[in-house]
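Recall the central idea of this unit: under ordinary conditions, the amino acid sequence of a chain determines the structure it adopts. In this exercise we apply that idea directly, starting from the sequence alone.
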Amino acid sequence: MRPPKRPRTTEDEGDREGEMDERRSAVDVSIVMPVYNASSWLDECLQAILEQDFTGSMELSVFDDASTDDSREVVEGWRDRLEARGMSVVISSHNSAQPRGVGYAKNKAIAQSRGQYLCFQDADDVMLPQRVRLQFEASVLHPDSLIGCKVQRVPEGSTERYTRWINTITQEQLTTQVYTSHGPTVVMPTWFCSRDCFLKVGAFDEGGKGVPEDLLFFYQSLRQGLGVHRVDQCLLVYRYHEKAATHSVTEETIWKMRVDFLQERVLSQWEHFTIWNAGKQGRKLYRSLSLINQKKVKALCDVDENKIHKGFYTYEESKERPKPKIPVLHYKDASAPFIICVKLDMTGGVLEENLNSLQLKEGIDYYHFN
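Accordingly, the structure predicted from this sequence is:
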């Protein structure tokens, strides 16, 4: 029996809180999908949602963020097929001429949904048939965790190192490598969690273009004590293209957020530490630290004899007199704990071998920053 169709409206649905509360517990999983000018990808995306092998109750909640193409019409065109499969569908949008951003659209899609669990889906990606089922099972087993999965990147090879990192870091590293430039250790297009987890963390940032709402939410989830878990199967085809929202976020914005989070979560607990990289990235990290944490830096370390031979790094921009001079040592002569500012997977395994030779434990003796 088909669920009854809901009124189709182009207005914000935020005022229907009472109605949503009545229906809140009626669905196991809500697939949450913000949409903005995604017409060319939606048929493949929605076909994959239709083919999910999950046997529980599902809902598709779409919020269209002022698309100027026919995205909304494409989604509406799939309503009958999705409802025939037993999925309820709710679609809404807003009347503004300009998009309000991914965070706003996600929040709206969640607010109008009624699932006990939330499965986040980007309109340009494709979920494999077992995605909802396996992530639902993982979320039941790990109720206070953000659940991710492995991915297939298309076009193949477009972000080779990033994709390898997504798929190969260990379960333990999902927690320890949260300060790297790669961002959340389970990538946003693969997120799945209980509604209770989402409510505990709070809404996505609605700052709009240029704001990394996924990284902000991820950091806040860790502050709230949520865990991170990955289903170790490929459950999503993760598309790379020039129009992706992630390209609007600058490297400097991400850098500052990472430094602040590192200082908050790690450096505040350490009395002193060594920065592993006496080159450009290591010096930049030193300069980015608060004065309190700069004073905790005992040395910069490296393997480059030319850098080590100079003996120290002088912070020329410092307003202190005399200007701070930081010793530069060979890594074997430096002392833990370390913040590693050398890019992972870029040294042919030499960095990893050097770390292993010191018998250090990630998350205790060192953290990766790059």
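The chain has 15 helices and 14 strands.
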